[in-house]
Amino acid sequence: MTDRPDDATRLAETAASAGPQVGLAAVAALRGLLEVLEVLQVDEARAQGWSWSDIAGGLGVSKQAVHHKHAGRIRAGRRR
């Protein structure tokens, strides 16, 4: 996991320019970072009263997809 924005930029550059072993590891790290960021932003949106439709629109996915992925976690009070 990265701690600073420049770390994420470095990972993205590595994913785009390195050999497959290093590049794929960078892709996996970025995927993990994106999952954490999505959870944080979905939680914040729900805390501010956003509907599942609003969140889905912001993520570019269907309401059903975002609800399926996050509703159970939020209902159970889990952050991730």
Roughly what percent helix? Answer: over 70%
Cα-to-Cα separation, first versus last residue: 14 Å
SSE string = HHHH
| Cα gyration radius (Å) | 15 Å
**Shape, principal axes of CA atoms:** elongated
Structural class: mainly alpha
In terms of topology, how is this protein built?
Layout: H1 5-17, H2 20-47, H3 52-59, H4 63-75
Helix pairs in contact: 1-2, 3-4
Fold and architecture overview:
- The protein is built from four helices and no strands.
- It has 80 residues and is mainly alpha-helical.
- The protein has one domain.
- Helix 1 runs antiparallel to helix 2 and helix 3 packs across helix 4.
- The longest helix has 28 residues.
Give a quick set of tags describing it.
0% strand; single chain; elongated; 4 helices; mainly alpha
Quick structural gist:
The chain has 80 residues and is mainly α.
